[in-house]
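The methods section describes the discrete structure representation at length, but only in general terms. Each protein is reduced to its one-letter sequence and a matching series of backbone shape codes. I believe one specimen quoted in the main text would settle the matter. An entry of this sort, consisting of the sequence and the corresponding backbone structure tokens, reads as follows.
***
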Amino acid sequence: MMTTHDERHYKTGGDPRTLADFIALRAEMNKLSHPARPDINWPYAEQLARSLLEHHGADLQTVAWYTLARARLGGLAGIHEGLSLMESLLAHQGKNLWPQALPARTEIFRTLSKRLRQVIRTLSLAPADLESLGQAERSLQSFDAVLQRLEIAPENPLSDLRALLHSTVSRFENLDPAPALPTAPPVAVSDAELPGALVSEEDAAKVEPVPELKRRPKAEPLAPPLPAKRPAPVVASSPAPAPRWKPFVAGMVTLLAVTGIAVGGWLALRQSDLPPISVTQNVIPGLPGASPLMPVDLPQTQRQLDELARLAPDWAVSYGDQL
């Protein structure tokens, strides 16, 4: 069975998981769920998907990845192109497409809906895109109708995507254009409707001509008055502070002088109050008289000194220990 899309004929293929192009395409798509968020080569992914569709045939997973690549590269037009291809494949060979297991198909549709919603939220849409939005919404409606008719997916896995497109279209449709200001139509006035002259010719002749008034020459603008010069403020010079050590020195000198005078006067008064004491030499009875001095034996004294000099330095310590 051949499927026609964009003047191309895609046959229905089988399980592509062993093909090199499918393995490379799956590696690119797995980057979407990688924690490091590496960049995806979307033109390369589209090229791999086209190669699989042309040489191997169409399967549901390859068409879903092709739709996502076209959405990333073409925006709303790419979404419409991918959904139309998937609708055509399901309408003609829906039950023969790989994978045929219902849980696998539901997961493919749900993942595609999630990724397409992310793409739409990143687009800078404007009211000028209303036609493309409506076209994508109609493609999605036809796709949902095919799913319900063939009972391929009991639940509607693309309902969130359809609701997002519908709300976006409704928001742009409800935008009221700026109302134009009404313009008054031109009024045509004929000569018959114009009133006559307000002053007759006779009355105009009686009116005395108004003498021409001589214009006074314009006075030159006065220059702004110069600001009055203010006298410079006189700064009163304060006397230099006296050195602090002079009062201290004067106080110390005065204190010493007063102290000296007071001490001198006190000593003079004390000496004048003491009575004179007469000192006489009296002999104390009972004491023997002074004996004459004994002669000194110098040689004996010298011998004793020599003996002391010959003694050991620690003689006194040794002698004390013997005692």
